[in-house]
Amino acid sequence: MDIRKHLSQVDLFNGLSLQQLDEVARIVSVKEYRKSEPVFSDGDEGIGFYLVISGRVKVYKVSPDGKEQIMHIFGPGQPFAEVPVFEGSRYPANGEAMDHSRLFFFPKKDFVKLIHDNPSLAMNMMASLSQRLKQFSHLIEALSLKEVPGRLASYLLYLSDKNGSIDQFELDIAKSQLASFLGTIPETLSRIFTKMTNKELVRINGPHITLVDRTGLEDLAEGESKL
Amino acid sequence: MDIRKHLSQVDLFNGLSLQQLDEVARIVSVKEYRKSEPVFSDGDEGIGFYLVISGRVKVYKVSPDGKEQIMHIFGPGQPFAEVPVFEGSRYPANGEAMDHSRLFFFPKKDFVKLIHDNPSLAMNMMASLSQRLKQFSHLIEALSLKEVPGRLASYLLYLSDKNGSIDQFELDIAKSQLASFLGTIPETLSRIFTKMTNKELVRINGPHITLVDRTGLEDLAEGESKL
DNA sequence: CGCTGCGTTGAGCTTCTTCAACGATCGTGG
DNA sequence: CCACGATCGTTGAAGAAGCTCAACGCAGCG
Fold it and tell me: Which CATH number covers residue A166?
């Protein structure tokens, strides 16, 4: 496999010369994970970070009584688990492959050296961390200031946008996982889907979604209406 | 005022030579804010970031119906509002001075130049962003997986630690602000303080707190007991 | 065929918020 | 110096949102 080719398509390595990409490629090791296999665990010593090549990885926290909050789902091209590279040394959450996934692993020590004499790489990394902060801000806002129907409406609109703003698309994750991402439980999510259907906001058929009343969803997402 | 002297005491500028500190000092402008004065607003164009010299600044989101979620409170030595420097161009939240505050302002353009040929500064900035990510993780975990009593218990234990693990200390913010930080409202917070007092976990006297049953609080914080 | 994981539905309950009222404190202006 | 208003904190009663527990349908797969 040509590691450099993969790296060249990733935002994090934007603007690097071929030679620089080679230097990066040299420190990479390729790892494979089966579906549901853990990548790292909360509190583990973090000896490097990862980049998703194929598949998906969820990063999540678990409460003592087993409830799970998904903090982020990473897909191809996205780096994750960078925190222990730069601050402290432990992963602050769990990571698990959602599909069979291929990851690149970048050892902390080697990567820090590269960053040191590679300002573009440093800038890209700061951009990546900043984007993550922004996404976390949105999640905090959603969890604290919106009710579940509002969060779900936001997510559906987001998915629609991601698919080119069309009104029909497939849920990219199982509904139970969606519940975990929205900070709720499958039962509650299911009930809200039912209500949304009754109010003619959406149509649901398994994982297939049709947005019927976009404006209504936007009002919900903004907290300007209720179900 | 000697800007360089202030900078030299800040983590973000750790490991910089005197000459490098001078270069940084050259781009700083000093700003003063009165208590309750906004520093920036959600959606504003972000033309740089800030460092707290004295006073405190809260960064928060507001819901359509006016509820406020404090995401972070920054004190002396802490940089904030870096996101638009590295990713996108708008602040993703609001910033407001909680006390009369003196801030240093670093214009985006100038600062990026400095980072470019200053690897230590880049590393420090990545450490700072990573730490922020870690703190946000904790907040997300708390909001989603813990009930309010658990969040309050965690906060009290955190405050105690910050004060050298002693059992008596002062709340550093008003209770209504604490409610906003814990993702709840003053009424709920007040009731929980009452319950905690009745269960002999703490003693409250205005802003003065005494931890009576540390173990009990730890159990609450871990979700292993209820009020 | 039967198992297992996922999704749905119902009933009851817990937690938290809303709305309203009231006490205490503090700073300001008369 | 006192009175007043504003802000903050507390308390009560009622209601809403979401969770728990339990049951069940359904699809996929060994």
Answer: 1.10.10.10
